[in-house]
Each structure stands twice: as structure tokens, then as C-alpha cells.
């Protein structure tokens, strides 16, 4: 289909009236048609009012209707075919295979949430039957279920143009929970966003759902992003991006007369601990795996391993040499946007200019105007403990190795870390005791702890946690990847002594949804 450069408000395509945004092919620097005129508070109000109008109907759709809707979105996205991946490649500089993989993940996520909706466990049904004879006081009939929070604002992420953008994890989990969604499309890939947005529009129409279940807005974050989060109809926010953007949105959400939750995934350097026995046994292999993970997607993953911690030794020196050689041989890959490339260059220059940091290796420069030249640097643990700049995320394929005097100093580094999405242990059997000592600290610091793997490549499944304490995310109690993400957009409601005729269907005595319930404290079904 031909891209129109429109905002999508319910079933309408609308031309904005504010400054134009347009995508730039980061591989060539060429501007890509069409231009998208940005929206303003008028379009934000319209989309949010429609979402509010759709809410009560949408949240009470049957589990089957909602599951079919999610599956229909996946089918409509697949039906767009090559046009989607081609536009994605042009707007992001990512390879075709990556876009194809991401489309698979996006549709897989939608289908996963469809299965979660059908299973109904997220309703978390509870019933404490009345005990009229209880002494000294009787108990009345009490029932609980989870309901959707309300319309959700989703900010598309720059680094996942499909899997964390218009129909990505935040949208899929919010729609699964029963929340209408208003997306603020990322300005770097508006064409990809429009194609996906129109696929969702078609799914809404096919499933005969109210128009306001989905809208897609383009424009500046300061204009429509802020207006969306401040809009009284919006009841929660999903965001992936910079720490600055995420904290600005948290401030807006908390300053509202009715503050709302912001689930922002922001900044993480994903420490990797090289334990001594593993380093002795297979330092070269670890170096190879590490540089492979560092370079994946030009390092533009929130789970990129940006910090490596080891104990000063001949084995650590050999690891640094081997990793440095691999970095030197690494090709430059095009970064997502000129802005992200500039931020990367600045971050690397700042690191390289510090007197307490030693440059080990830089990769190749390449021809792309926005190529990411990989980098590897080393600093001492004592400097890391006193210089907060060394914990700053450099978004791209650059990492810092920290040399510790001994295991006590390694433990102090772990304690000193900010909140992280992941923490990785490279360990052998002989490292078990050291790992055991680090574990309680890592549990406090990170959402996911790995042994002998690499943090990039996040499985979308039921047990995944893609979250962690600030600044990794704004709320460490949840995950933004995997089926548990649905709980971000739900809240419990208790029904006390309601007559059967007033109770929601899910809570009727005969358990019409046939899902497991907690009855008088005992699990049934
Ligand atoms: P970003 O600048 O935070 O922007 C993300 C989205 O939020 C955009 O739609 C942007 O709108 C909007 N936004 C930003 N600041 C806002 C504000 N103050 N109020 C309202 N909306 C706001 O992130 P990005 O463009 O994806 O990349 C920039 C940097 O973010 C990267 O260099 C990297 O450091 C970091 N990043 C981190 C991760 C991660 O997972 N850790 C992922 C992606 C990016 P506009 O359209 O106006 O820009």
C-alpha cells in the first residue's frame, strides 16, 4: 500500500497540522517520503476521548473475542508482506533478516498474549464465601477479579521498529489486558509505524470492535508525548528509550492531579562477571562470545553487555587482549538514527578522553555515514567506585572492562552498580562459592541473572523478566517482555456481597470461564 503520511485516529486517517517529521535512511543519509505532519493536543484529545469511549465495551469483550483480535492483528501484519520489512530496513539501517526475525517475534508475541487471554489466569479469580455463623463476627461474601486499568499510552522504541513499536510488547500486553492503546510513533520509523498501524486498524474493523481501541499519533515528544501522558483519559504509560525521556514522562505522570503508572525501560549496562576458574578454563571462548554479543545489532540493545568485571590476573589480561583483537576486526554497522549515532560518538569520546580509562581497541570505521565503530576500554575498580560517569550507558557497541584487585573488590563493584536489566556470571564449577556470594547482591540489582550465556537475545515466554530497579526501569515490580507484562495494565477489584445478577460473569458460582480460582484460600481447577 502507498503510505499516506497520516495520523490514525480510530478508523480515520487524519493529516496533522504541526511541524513535519520524516524518516532518514541512516545507511545513506537520504530523506524518505512521505512527510508526516505532526499532531497536537487536538489530535491527542480526539484519540484519548475515543479510547475512553471504547474502554468499557472493549474491556468486557469475551476472552475469545479479544484473543481473536490479537491473532487478527498478527495475520494483518503478516499480510503486509515484503513492503513492511523493506520499509523497516530503509528506515533503520537494520538488515532484512533482522526485520524478518522481528516481524516473527512481533506476531509470536501477539499470539502468545492471545493464548494468555484465553487461559484467563490473569483474571486472578478469588472467592471467600460468606460465613454467616462465624464468631465473633460473620463474614460476608467477597470476590475478586482483575480488570483493565484504562486507555494506555505507548511510546514506540527506536531500536525495535516492530517488536517494541506500534504493535510491540507494550501494545500487545495492554490490548490483552483490555486496555485501548494510543501509540506515539517513534519519529525515526514513521512509515513502518503507519503500515503496522493500518494493519491494526483493519483488525479492529474485522473484529467489529469500537474505533477507539487503537490510535497512532506522530509528532514531537514534547508536544504530543507530553500531552498524551497528561491527558486525563490515559491511565498508564509504556515507554522504551532514554533515561532523560523516561524520567521526563515519569515527572509529568506523577504531577497529574491523578498520578498514573509509567512503565519506562531506560538504561542498563548489563554487567558481566568473569569468575576466575571460568576465565582460566576458557578465556578465549568467553572473549569471542562477549564480542559477538557486544556487536549484535550495532550494540543497540538495552541488554548489550557494556560492562565486564574481572580480577586482575594473567588470564584477565589474556581475555582483554583476545577481546581487543576481536573488536579491532569488527566491522562498523549502521546505527538506527543520526541522533543515536551522534550520542554514541559523544559517549565514546567522553570515555576515551578520561585519564582514568585506557583505550584497548577500536573497530573498523566503514563507509556508512552513521556507522558504529566498536570500542573496548579498561578502568580500575577503584576508579569505577569513585567516578559515576563510568556507569553511564554508551548506547552502541562499546564496553568497559573493570579490573578488580580481588573478589572483595568485585563484590564492592556489584554493590556499587545502579539497577540493571541483567547481570551475567561466566562461571565454572570451581566458581560456585564466588557466584553464591555475588548472587544476593545481583538479585537486588537486576531483573534477570544469567550463567554462562549472553544477555542479548531476550526470549519471549512466561518466565522472562525484562525489568529491574531504576534506572533500568521506572518500576522494578514488572516486566516489559513475556506474558507477565499483562499485569502492568490490570488492577484488582473486590465485590462484597453483590447479588448474583450484578456480579461479573467471571465471578459467577459456576465458574463459566472455567479458569482456576482461589476459593476460601484453596486453589481450585
Ligand atoms: P528517546 O530520545 O528517549 O525518545 C523515545 C521517545 O520518547 C520518542 O518518541 C521521543 O519523541 C519521546 N520523548 C523523548 N523525550 C521526551 C520528553 N521529554 N517528553 C515526551 N516525549 C519524549 O529515545 P531514542 O530516540 O530511542 O534514542 C535516544 C537515546 O535513547 C539513545 O541514544 C540511547 O541512549 C537511548 N535508548 C536506550 C534504549 C534502551 O533500551 N536502553 C533504547 C532506545 C534508546 P521525539 O519523537 O520527539 O524524539
Describe this structure in words.
Belongs to the aldehyde dehydrogenase family. The chain is of the alpha/beta class and 525 residues long. It contains 14 helices and 23 strands. It has two domains: 234 residues, Aldehyde Dehydrogenase, Chain A, domain 1 (3-Layer(aba) Sandwich); 181 residues, Aldehyde Dehydrogenase, Chain A, domain 2 (3-Layer(aba) Sandwich), CATH 3.40.309.10. The protein has a seven-stranded mixed β-sheet with strand order 2-1-9-8-7-10-11, with helices on both faces. The longest helix is centred in the N-terminal third of the chain and has 24 residues. It binds NADP nicotinamide-adenine-dinucleotide phosphate (NAP). NADP nicotinamide-adenine-dinucleotide phosphate (NAP) binds next to helix 7, helix 8 and helix 11.
Low-confidence stretches: none
Label the CATH architecture of the largest domain: 3-Layer(aba) Sandwich
**Terminal Cα separation, in Å?**
48 Å
Helix content: 25-40%
Count of DSSP-assigned helices: 14
Spatially, the strands of the biggest sheet line up as 2-1-9-8-7-10-11
Average pLDDT over all residues: 97
Number of strands: 23
What Rg is obtained from the alpha carbons, in whole angstroms?
25 Å
**Largest sheet data:** 7 strands, mixed
Shape summary: globular
CATH topology of the largest domain: Aldehyde Dehydrogenase, Chain A, domain 1
Q: List all distinct small molecules, including ions and cofactors, that are bound in this structure.
A: NADP nicotinamide-adenine-dinucleotide phosphate
CATH class of the largest domain: Alpha Beta
**Structural class, from helix and strand content?**
alpha/beta
What count of domains describes the coordinates? 2
Looking at CATH, the homologous superfamily of the largest domain is Aldehyde Dehydrogenase, Chain A, domain 1
Beta-strand content: 15-25%
Amino acid at each position: 500500500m502507498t503510505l499516506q503520511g497520516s495520523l490514525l485516529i480510530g478508523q480515520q486517517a487524519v493529516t496533522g497540522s504541526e511541524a513535519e517529521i520524516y524518516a532518514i535512511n541512516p545507511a545513506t543519509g537520504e530523506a524518505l517520503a512521505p512527510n508526516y505532519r505532526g499532531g497536537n493536543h487536538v489530535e491527542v484529545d480526539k484519540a484519548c476521548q475515543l479510547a475512553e469511549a471504547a474502554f468499557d465495551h472493549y474491556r468486557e469483550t469475551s476472552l475469545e473475542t479479544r484473543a481473536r483480535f490479537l491473532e487478527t492483528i498478527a495475520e494483518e501484519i503478516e499480510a503486509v508482506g515484503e513492503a513492511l520489512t523493506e520499509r523497516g530496513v530503509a528506515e533503520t539501517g537494520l538488515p532484512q533478516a533482522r526485520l524478518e526475525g522481528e516481524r516473527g517475534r512481533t506476531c509470536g508475541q501477539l499470539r502468545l498474549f492471545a493464548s494468555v487471554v484465553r487461559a484467563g489466569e490473569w483474571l486472578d479469580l478469588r472467592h471467600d464465601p460468606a460465613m454467616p455463623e462465624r464468631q465473633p463476627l460473620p463474614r460476608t461474601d467477597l470476590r475478586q477479579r482483575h480488570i483493565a486499568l484504562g486507555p494506555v499510552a505507548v511510546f514506540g522504541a527506536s531500536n525495535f521498529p516492530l517488536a517494541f513499536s506500534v504493535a510491540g510488547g507494550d501494545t500487545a500486553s495492554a490490548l490483552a489486558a483490555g486496555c485501548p492503546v494510543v501509540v506515539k510513533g517513534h519519529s525515526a520509523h514513521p512509515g513502518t509505524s503507519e503500515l503496522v498501524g493500518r494493519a491494526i486498524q483493519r483488525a479492529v474493523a474485522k473484529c467489529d470492535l469500537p474505533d477507539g481501541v487503537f490510535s497512532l499519533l506522530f509528532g514531537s515528544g514534547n508536544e504530543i508525548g507530553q500531552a498524551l501522558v497528561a491527558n486525563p483519559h490515559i491511565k498508564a504509560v509504556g515507554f522504551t528509550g532514554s533515561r532523560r525521556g523516561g524520567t521526563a514522562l515519569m515527572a509529568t505522570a506523577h504531577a497529574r492531579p491523578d498520578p498514573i503508572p509509567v512503565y519506562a525501560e531506560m538504561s542498563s549496562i548489563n554487567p558481566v562477571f568473569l569468575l576466575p576458574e571460568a576465565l582460566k578454563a576458557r578465556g578465549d571462548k568467553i572473549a569471542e562470545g562477549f564480542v559477538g554479543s557486544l556487536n549484535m545489532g550495532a550494540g543497540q540493545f538495552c541488554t548489550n553487555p557494556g560492562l565486564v568485571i574481572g580480577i586482575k590476573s594473567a588470564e584477565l589480561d589474556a581475555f582483554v587482549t583476545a577481546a581487543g583483537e576481536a573488536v579491532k576486526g569488527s566491522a562498523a554497522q549502521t546505527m538506527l538514527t543520526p541522533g543515536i549515532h551522534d550520542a554514541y560518538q559523544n559517549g565514546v569520546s567522553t570515555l576515551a578522553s578520561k585519564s582514568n580509562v585506557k583505550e584497548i581497541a577500536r573497530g573498523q570505521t566503514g563507509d556508512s555515514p552513521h556507522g558504529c565503530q566498536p570500542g573496548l576500554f579498561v578502568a580500575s575498580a577503584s576508579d569505577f567506585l569513585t567516578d559515576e560517569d563510568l556507569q553511564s550507558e554508551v548506547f552502541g557497541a562499546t564496553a568497559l572492562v573493570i579490573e578488580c584487585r580481588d573478589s572483595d573488590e568485585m563484590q564492592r563493584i556489584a554493590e556499587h552498580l545502579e539497577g540493571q536489566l541483567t547481570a551475567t556470571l561466566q562461571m565454572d564449577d570451581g566458581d560456585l562459592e564466588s557466584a553464591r556470594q555475588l548472587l544476593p547482591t545481583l538479585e537486588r540489582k537486576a531483573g534477570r541473572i544469567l550463567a554462562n550465556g549472553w544477555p542479548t537475545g531476550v526470549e519471549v515466554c512466561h518466565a522472562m523478566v525484562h525489568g529491574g530497579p531504576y534506572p533500568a526501569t521506572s518500576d522494578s515490580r514488572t516486566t516489559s517482555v513475556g506474558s507477565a507484562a499483562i499485569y502492568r495494565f490490570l488492577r484488582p477489584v473486590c465485590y462484597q456481597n453483590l447479588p448474583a445478577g450484578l456480579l461479573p460473569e467471571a465471578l459467577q458460582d459456576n465458574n463459566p470461564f472455567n479458569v482456576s480460582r482461589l476459593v476460601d484460600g484453596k486453589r481450585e481447577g
